[in-house]
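Example 3.2
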Amino acid sequence: MKILLQQRQLKPDEDLFIAMMQRDTYSLKEIDRVSNSLGHKPGRKAWGYIIKNAVRAGDEENAEMLFSRALWRKVVPDFSGADALIRLLLHPHGRSYSDKERTLKAVDVFRRWAEHGLGFDGCKTSNLHSLLRALLAQPSIENRQEHIDFILDYVKRHGYLLEPNSPRVSAVLDSVYRSAKSHAEAVDLVKGTTTLSGAEVRALFGYIAGMRFDAATIMPAATVRAFLKYAAVKHDVGVRWYTAFLRSIHDSFAPELLTLQALNTVRAVAPPAGVRLDAPYYTMCLQLFGRFARAGIRVKRDLDECWRQITARGTADAIAVRAMLQAFPAWRAAQLYEAWAPAADAATRHSVLSEWAQVLCRLDRRRAFNLLLRGEGDKPGSPALAMFFATASTELDKEKCKQHFPTAWEDPATQAAVARLLLEPSMAQYRPVEAPVKKDTEALEDEDDSEDEFDEDDSEDSGHDGDVIHS
């Protein structure tokens, strides 16, 4: 074969070496035979193929030996071979768990390969995720944190924190940030990754902001500012970044526990007073502050400022008006709506009809009734009808609801929504008044009185009978 290649002036390569190997063979004798026949020593790709043959055969001992032999010959197998060996060590025979000894073997393979490796070569990173998970699940491993840091540092340096060509958070990225100790440490990992696009960085921003760490359940304001500065986000074009952060807080945290801390963070990262931002940023603030207000935190000044900034840029859209009607107290929301409505088009007014009707239910039930009759109709599951039913405080109001909205009145989902509304502190005045229950002491006194009356009657009867007997 060597002479034939020389006659045709062809140079042997890796693909030819692999083709010359007998299918699924991985013995050193076969490797030497093909190498001598071609006059070509196996390289990175060939060694990766040979190791994968051993892995496919389930021969763990020979797979480790071949990996060591390749490194001894100063050839680093490509990542496909190392990846296959790591998978075999972590998941022997398809098992989903790994013991301490096998985990250490897999870590040793990765470290030895990474010290010589040139990158992931576009291979899958799911086994690195499994390796991190195995380390995190084995607290008794010596120098465990050092191994984790080594893997994370390697992943960070090579920029494989996200799935290729997608802003979706990968399995490795999830393990990376789950193993971080704080938001700041997670952000530092992003700073070390230079291959991420703008969309990917934004995805990371929202992902990290929504995570909880023991040190701080909400991302500290200083970390947010440092991240925005690193990403060169300007105030006038950074509305989506701020909005992503606010949305992460809004969607991820319980208002009764963390609202004040989140509110202080939002205030701290807000842009200077002279900087103009687009309405979506203030709309998100309005929604967030409204949630805080419903939780009992006083944010009136922030609510008014958000609405002023939105209307300063023209007529507010339906999203902003909907947020305003839900955030402000009913009387204030009515004032702002009446000032906004004349300049708004009919389609926008119709899109916020449900929220406007809910406000009117607290202020003017007659107007709310007319609006619902024309706009909502007898529609089960309507939040506006649920509010209308909840504010029906008299029997006459309830009969009116049954008469004009019978289907919604009998709807279980609507009645469940009514029950939830009546549990809110602001709806206390609409709760049905329960009849006073007679106290136990009063009941006992009544029983004592009845017994006394019975005794008196009994004694009278006894005396009469005695007289009869005596006579």
